[in-house]
Amino acid sequence: MRVSHVVLVSLLSLAPAATAFAACESSQCPASEFGSAVEAVRAEIAERCTCDPGDRSTRRPYSLCVGETIREAKKRGDLTKACAKTTRRCALESTCGKPGAVVCCQSERGEVVASVEPENRCERRGGTVCPGVVVAVDACTDEGTCATP
After folding, report:
1. How far is Cα 148 from Cα 74, in angstroms, rounded to an integer?
2. Per-residue model confidence as pLDDT tens digits over 96-134
3. Count of C-beta atoms within a 10 Å radius of residue 63
4. Any idea what DSSP says for residue 146?
5. Which of 25, 50, 53, 121 could form an SS bridge with 31, CB 3.0 to 4.6 Å?
């Protein structure tokens, strides 16, 4: 087990189960209707799929693991096709296998946006770097600061 995976699982375990993940949703997969199913699959991804942000060679295996986990969830009937697509997008918007990348919280046009980009770019654009956060959707509060795990 890679250290970063242990850190991610440890960080997730600090939050209450119901709020371990931020809303991962789309218009076809609203959190109000499918949130608990999406959260369950994201927890399964966090447990199964190892990721090392500093090692490029882990990006492809992580991506394949995410895809396999989502396919299995669809096969079990846990996710709809639209929610599978949304869950994949949320899981892959991460620093996994991207050395030097960070999750950045920034206010754009009155809306808080989380992105994965080089640390110096985030700071140059006036964003807030969220250390230790791997997945962008979990990073920001409504105020534009980093969410605490």
Report:
1. 31
2. 999 999 999 998 888 888 999 999 999 999 999 998 888
3. 18
4. B
5. 25
